[in-house]
């Protein structure tokens, strides 16, 4: 296929994140962004802000625009390098929506209705409360992946079902129309620090938390960050040791500490032997604030230079669109659509 990676790197990798809040949180950073930065050295990397996906919750237009910029700025501040990666805004590459329609016409209604996100939303608010966009959300996700002939997709357990749909659709397209798209494979990254909600340490840290103080946001005021850590739920007893089942609160704090400072859990347990939770929280608050301060400052530098940010995003969209158009042209032709004006095989005036 013509849009296969032309570099000496072993494959093409893609990952997107939705702009659904003013700030990413520490779980996003440690669970995803740190891996994005590592992977861009070894793979042909495509990273994007999935603003089309975020439309399923009907955000206010001005809020969406601001959050899209802030999300992209945080990617850059965290170390995504536009010289190594293709960084783009999903809606800036219209081929995402076009390929979604082409794939949707090859997706079964029952197949789409079994997707977890739609089932969960529909069970809570009824089908009338769930949009067609939410229903076809997994097909757009498949389009995101197949558009770039992606070989590898970093996945967590919650995304496996959507990747499987992408694989099924790719195989179906290739069976019906000949070799048309690349069948993606899951890329299982080495184990990352799993960060939990500070107020509910049995739940993963998430933007949808009902506990505002359960998050550690990358762009939060340092005083607020420290306050959230000091008010974090711990456990009965006073011993500082890692025990995910019986002491989830202190185990979460130790995980964050270890991930940011680089010390092992056992080293931290020994360091804080005989000390109370208060000592651990005070020291951890200092570690987190010190770690996030330069990242926040870099993000603000990007946001205060909008023309520079726009230039990076425009360049990324241009590079992405070149590859995306190759794929769409190939799929259109394979499905029997007339070539558009200017494409190979189109009628000339």
Could you list the spans in which at least 5 consecutive residues all have pLDDT below 50? Answer: 2-6
Percent of residues in beta strands? 5-15%
Secondary-structure content class? mainly alpha
Using the alpha-carbon principal axes, give the shape: elongated
Tell me the radius of gyration. Answer: 22 Å
Query: Helix tally?
Result: 14
Widest sheet: strand ordering: 1-2-3
Q: What's the end-to-end separation, in Å?
A: 29 Å
Query: Mean pLDDT, rounded to whole units?
Result: 90
Query: For the report, how would you describe the main beta sheet?
Result: 3 strands, parallel
The ordered string of helix (H) and strand (E) elements is EHEHHEHHHHHEHEHHHHH
| Percent helix | 40-55%
Beta-strand segment tally: 5
Q: What layout of secondary structure does this protein have?
A:
Layout (H helix, E strand, L loop, with lengths): L11 E6 L8 H14 L4 E6 L1 H4 L6 H18 L6 E5 L5 H10 L4 H5 L2 H10 L6 H4 L1 H10 L5 E3 L5 H18 L7 E3 L34 H9 L17 H14 L3 H7 L5 H27 L2 H30 L14
Parallel strand pairs: 1-2, 2-3, 4-5
Helix pairs in contact: 3-13, 4-8, 4-14, 8-9, 10-13, 11-13
Please sum up the structure shown.
With 349 residues, this protein is mainly α. Helices cover 52% and strands 7% of the residues. The chain starts with 11 loop residues before the first strand and ends in a 14-residue tail after the last helix.
Distinctive features:
two-stranded parallel sheet, 14 helices, 5 strands, three-stranded parallel sheet, 7% strand, mainly alpha, 349 residues
